[in-house]
Specification:
single chain; 265 residues; mainly alpha; 5 helices
């Protein structure tokens, strides 16, 4: 269209009239230009209308999304509650199986100290402890897991320190068994040095099978000097000095902690 207008202007400037063909082409170009301009304007108006409609649709969609969010909030809260309960029950089920297993493995590891299967039990103990830790980390919140881990660490340290203190404590000597003393008396030997007891033969024998000493008589081992027989403080009859009870009245010695240990035969 612009080129035809330039040609028409040049022909007018030169003083010549445009030909009929040029006029027809110019008229056709003008008509086509006006038609395209009208179409372009209609298309622009249509685009503006579509943009406005799109904006309205976006506003409607935003309103619907807000309504959907408000309507979905109770369902989301209920889902979170049920999901948390499910995780808690699942964690309790897993820990209910793992914690007794951990206690059993720990007990077996403690009992097998110094034995050849200790490494196997210790490996099982470490593996079970790691599994328990992973279950707690998976099913419990991070803050709660942190506090549980700190508490477990403190308990483990306290248990270790308690065990260490028990090992360092001086053990009290075990109480001397009374059965070897009674057996030595039955064999007529000194419970301390196993020297034979020289008893006078009597028909009214009281201590010892078939032999005794007279009531109120005392007897001291001639080898080690241990008092073996003496008078009972309650009934006055002769009794075994190293045994806790009187054979006549059943009176108990005030303390038998000073009983001598038996010598190894």
């Amino acid at each position: 269209m612009g080129q035809l207008m330039d040609l028409h202007r040049l022909s007018l400037e030169k003083g010549g009239d445009p030909t009929t063909k040029q006029r027809d082409a110019l008229a056709e170009s003008q008509a086509l230009f006006l038609t395209n301009q009208a179409r372009s304007q209609a298309a622009t108006e249509r685009v503006a209308e579509l943009v406005r409609h799109k904006r309205e649709l976006f506003q409607d969609a935003s309103a619907l999304e807000e309504q959907l969010r408000l309507a979905r909030a109770p369902a989301d809260e209920e889902y979170e509650r049920l999901d948390g309960r499910h995780d808690f029950l699942l964690a309790c089920l897993k820990l209910g199986l793992l914690i007794p297993l951990l206690a059993f493995v720990a007990r077996r590891s403690h009992r097998n100290r110094g034995k050849r299967f200790l490494a196997v039990w210790m490996s099982a103990l470490v593996a079970t402890f790691i599994h328990v830790t992973l279950v707690m980390h998976e099913h419990f919140p991070s803050d709660l897991f942190k506090y549980i881990a700190i508490t477990a660490g403190i308990l483990i340290i306290l248990a270790f320190l308690t065990s260490l203190l028990k090992r360092q404590q001086v053990r009290q000597p075990a109480e001397v068994s009374r059965k070897p003393i009674a057996d030595a008396y039955s064999a007529n030997r000194c419970p301390r040095c196993t020297f034979p007891i020289q008893l006078r033969q009597r028909t009214d024998a009281r201590p010892g099978p078939g032999s005794s000493i007279a009531d109120n008589d005392s007897y001291t081992c001639p080898s080690c000097g241990t008092d073996l027989f003496g008078a009972c403080a309650a009934c006055g009859t002769n009794r075994h000095s190293l045994l806790p009870f009187c054979g006549s009245c059943g009176d108990e010695l005030a303390s038998d902690s000073s009983q001598p240990a038996l010598s190894e035969a």
